[in-house]
Automatic annotation (TrEMBL):
<keyword id="KW-0560">Oxidoreductase</keyword>
<feature type="domain" description="Transketolase-like pyrimidine-binding">
    <location>
        <begin position="567"/>
        <end position="770"/>
    </location>
</feature>
<dbReference type="InterPro" id="IPR005475">
    <property type="entry name" value="Transketolase-like_Pyr-bd"/>
</dbReference>
<dbReference type="InterPro" id="IPR011603">
    <property type="entry name" value="2oxoglutarate_DH_E1"/>
</dbReference>
<dbReference type="GO" id="GO:0030976">
    <property type="term" value="F:thiamine pyrophosphate binding"/>
</dbReference>
<dbReference type="Pfam" id="PF02779">
    <property type="entry name" value="Transket_pyr"/>
</dbReference>
<protein>
    <recommendedName>
        <fullName>Transketolase-like pyrimidine-binding domain-containing protein</fullName>
    </recommendedName>
</protein>
<dbReference type="InterPro" id="IPR001017">
    <property type="entry name" value="DH_E1"/>
</dbReference>
<dbReference type="InterPro" id="IPR029061">
    <property type="entry name" value="THDP-binding"/>
</dbReference>
<dbReference type="Pfam" id="PF00676">
    <property type="entry name" value="E1_dh"/>
</dbReference>
<keyword id="KW-0786">Thiamine pyrophosphate</keyword>
<keyword id="KW-0809">Transit peptide</keyword>
<comment type="similarity">
    <text>Belongs to the alpha-ketoglutarate dehydrogenase family.</text>
</comment>
<dbReference type="GO" id="GO:0016624">
    <property type="term" value="F:oxidoreductase activity, acting on the aldehyde or oxo group of donors, disulfide as acceptor"/>
</dbReference>
Length: 791
């Protein structure tokens, strides 16, 4: 049998997959292409590793598996108590303990050479004691090299006495604060820091480094545990104000209509001073729904970055050059709440990137009553971080100095690589979930250990006394003087009056809405409408436009604009966006595929058919234009993305944040954000938000799931009155406009008023192209406005 050879020659075309799958969006507002970094392990290091390849394999094994037999659990209740890790067995690597090996280039040590036994000892001290690092899962070689060098330096690092005393003082203050509250307010749930006091070295070190590095602002999200201790201990929150609240007094001056929130949600906005440097800290309000505040903090960070021309918004800098995001988690909530997965997946996406967040887990190894092993399926609560190649450093909270050292690495890693990193501080919880709860119903063995040990501050005080750094007398004095200050504050609480801290800075000139229906002229001069309308579909000469887009969308719009008639839904939207940009407001539209629009009607973002370059015509209307449209095509997430946009919206009233669900009925994946932030933020916290939510497509019919955006649920969520018409002071506005002009006015009204309210708009599908659902310029001209009812 003969085989016929095929003479067709396969032509292999070298294709850059990234180029195919990515937009080339240089200079699109809110996105700058990052320069490609080239990293090369030095030749001599590579040579050393080749020469000692077996030893190098052993070192790599410690870097990869050492954490499994580390001693990071302060209550020794761990799953890893027996340290038999086969991967660390010397036999695997053909090494005997007396063999001389080269350390240089292989493990970071002061010694250039040593025996395998020396190396084993060193590696154990680095990777298997009170710090356990996980970084070999990272994709980037430079990051791995950098982290191994930094972590391997740790055993040689010592802290100066001033730093040690600072750590001790903060921890003693925290412990005293818990004891003080325990005595003065016996029935209070304070969710104290007892057992987790080593969180203080994390914060003091990160904040100090941030100020030293000339960061301007820190935006922080954190849950209940230790929050009050931090507020009064280092965030300059007046204890008198806190005590006044505990006694049941209102949070806000009487002139405001607001209910306030529970104690464990209090916030700080303060300047932290370190020598002649300072950094501003904003600790965000959090709802009880654990972790829901994280995307909000990211969105607020991004808004601050935009306002201060940081990162993609600036000429020449990187994200978080000025503003840094910090997130604190509980161990159970971090692994249990899906919003964290969404946030991590957002972290490097264009238009959502904030330059990497620093995460601290206050890992007391229990969630309410649930022991760690029942609270997740992964080994560590931080394993989620691995999905974005984030390093994790676990540390034993009984060793505050080690906590401080790894915090420094976390900070420096974030600064160097602008990526997320996790510090997992393993600690314990002295009491039950709160101080009134008895933990021994469910965790008797653990609490036997906890009740028979010394507290972390006391252990550290003993250590420093033994080292001669402080005396017992100084420690006692520090505690006494702090308690005496707290006593003075308790007295001051009796006459404390809430300060008026609201509607300041970015919000200067804004106020709460009145109990009246006000009408705002949102009309626009016809010449400007014509200008904006034609600019909204203009593109550069060398731009390869999609032929269908040109034939339909662009041509039709130009005709309608020139006639000022038959203005359709998407044209009205473009006119609203463009005129707001013209007035200097920024507009950000976010959600899945929003640039094109789910129903292919919007096209605020055009894609060059040859180069994949994106273009946003509304950002090129005029050379002096000061407002810009950010088109944030999002990941397939509702909760984190909506939370993000809410956070963005509360930073400044001058930026219109719009979130569009792909189909209206998908909003319920973000129900937590609606319930705990959007509908209630002003009442709980006096946080106003003009966040505008587009929910297509109400009752247009597309099967059971897509035919309803469930408008009735939004109506139920309003505090609309039953006995009289609502004023502007309703908690949120819900509307279903039926003409393009109405939609135009609604969007513009969000920006021109002197207050902000969340707005839900049930948007259509069929009406987008329905011949009779059009408006004309006369309905958008000066003097026109949104009409609550058309008749
Ligand atoms: C989304 C959500 N579900 C449930 C709760 C009720 N809850 C409050 S605290 C808590 C335990 C949290 O454990 P962890 O995250 O480890 O923090 P810890 O209290 O141990 O500091 C639970 C389940 C909540 N607040 N939020
Ligand atoms: Mg916990």
């Amino acid at each position: 049998m003969s085989i016929t050879r095929c003479n067709i020659c396969l032509r292999l075309v070298k294709v850059n997959v990234n180029a195919l799958r990515n937009y080339h969006s240089e200079n699109v507002f809110g996105f700058k292409k990052k320069p490609k970094k080239v990293y090369q392990v030095p030749d001599e290091v590579q040579a050393a590793r080749c020469n000692e390849s077996n030893f190098y394999r052993l070192v790599t094994a410690y870097r990869q598996h050492g954490h499994k037999c580390s001693s990071i659990d302060p209550v020794q209740f761990s799953l890893n108590s027996s340290c038999l890790i086969p991967e660390l067995d010397l036999k695997r690597y053909g090494l005997s303990i007396n063999k001389e090996v080269t350390f240089s280039g292989i493990v970071n040590s002061e010694k250039r050479t040593g025996t395998v036994s020396d190396a084993e000892q060193l590696l154990k001290s680095i990777y298997c004691e009170h710090i356990a690092a996980e970084f070999l899962h990272l994709e980037d070689e430079e990051e791995i090299e950098w982290l191994s060098q930094e972590i391997e330096k740790l055993p040689r690092q010592t802290l100066d006495n001033d730093t040690k005393i600072k750590i001790l003082t903060e921890m003693l203050k925290s412990e005293s604060f818990d004891q003080f509250l325990g005595i003065k307010f016996g029935s209070l749930k304070r969710y104290g820091a007892e057992g987790a006091e080593s969180m203080f070295p994390f914060f003091t070190e990160i904040f100090r480094l941030a100020a030293e590095d000339n960061l301007e602002q820190l935006v922080m999200a954190m849950p209940h545990r230790g929050r009050l201790n931090l507020l009064t201990g280092i965030f300059n929150f007046s204890p008198a104000r806190m005590f006044s609240k505990i006694k049941g007094n209102p949070d806000f001056p009487a002139k405001y209509v607001a209910s306030g929130d529970v104690l464990s949600h209090l916030i700080a906005s303060t300047n932290l001073k370190y020598g002649d440097k300072s950094v501003h800290l904003s600790l965000l309000y959090n709802p009880s729904h654990l972790e829901a505040v994280n995307p909000v903090s990211m969105g607020k960070t991004r808004a601050k970055q935009m306002l201060s021309a940081d990162g993609d918004y600036g000429p020449n800098n990187e994200f978080s050059d000025k503003i840094l995001n910090i997130q604190v988690h509980g161990d159970a909530a971090l692994s249990g709440q899906g919003v964290n997965q969404e946030c991590l997946m957002l972290s490097k996406v264009p238009h959502f990137d904030v330059g990497g967040s620093i995460h601290l887990v206050v890992n007391n190894q229990v969630g309410f009553t649930t022991p760690a092993a029942r609270g997740r399926s992964s080994r560590y609560c931080t394993d989620l971080g691995k999905i974005i190649s984030a390093p994790v450093i676990h540390v034993n909270g009984d060793y505050p100095e080690e906590v401080l050292k790894v915090s420094k690495i976390a900070f420096e890693y974030q600064r160097k690589f602008r990526k997320d990193i996790f510090v997992d501080m393993n600690c314990y919880r002295l009491w039950g979930h709160n101080e009134l709860d008895d933990p021994t119903f469910t965790n008797p063995a653990l609490y036997n250990v906890i009740r028979s040990r010394k507290t972390v501050p006391q252990m550290y005080a003993d250590k420093l006394i033994q080292e001669g750094v402080v005396s017992e007398h100084t420690c006692k004095q520090a505690v006494e003087s702090y308690k005496s200050w707290l006593n003075d504050e308790l007295k001051a609480a009796e006459t404390y009056q809430p300060e008026d801290l609201y509607f300041k800075n970015n919000w200067d000139g804004y106020n709460q809405a009145q109990e009246a229906v006000t009408t705002w002229d949102t009309g626009v001069d016809t010449n400007l409408l014509t200008f904006v309308g034609s600019k909204s579909v203009e593109y550069p000469n060398d731009f390869n436009i999609h032929p269908t887009l040109l034939r339909t969308h662009i041509t039709n719009r130009l005709t309608k604009i020139s006639e000022g008639e038959k203005i359709d839904w998407s044209t009205a939207e473009a006119l609203a966006f463009g005129t707001l940009l013209f007035q200097g407001y920024n507009v950000r539209i976010s959600g899945q595929d929003v640039g094109r629009g789910t129903f292919c009607h919007r096209h605020v973002m055009m894609v060059d058919q040859k180069s994949n370059t994106t273009y946003v015509p509304l950002n090129h209307m005029h050379k002096d234009q000061s407002g810009f449209l950010e088109v944030a095509n999002s990941i397939l997430s509702e909760e984190a993305v909506l939370g993000y946009e809410y956070g963005y919206s509360v930073e400044s009233p001058r930026n219109l944040a719009i979130w569009e669900a792909q189909f209206g009925d998908f909003f319920n994946g973000a129900q937590v954000i609606f319930d705990t932030f959007i509908t209630s933020g002003e009442d709980k916290w006096l946080w106003q938000s003009g966040l505008t939510i587009l929910l297509p497509h109400g009752y247009d019919g597309a099967g059971p799931e897509h035919s309803s955006a469930r408008i009735e649920r939004f109506l139920q969520l309003t505090d609309s009155k039953e006995n009289k018409p609502d004023g502007d002071n309703v908690n949120m506005q819900v509307s279903q406009p039926s003409t393009p002009a109405q939609y135009f006015h609604l969007l513009r009204r969000q920006m021109v008023r002197n207050f902000r309210k969340p707005l839900i708009i049930i948007t259509p599908k069929t009406l987008l192209r329905y011949p009779t659902c059009t408006s004309n310029f006369a309905e958008m001209a000066p003097g026109t406005h949104f009409k609550p009812v058309l008749g």
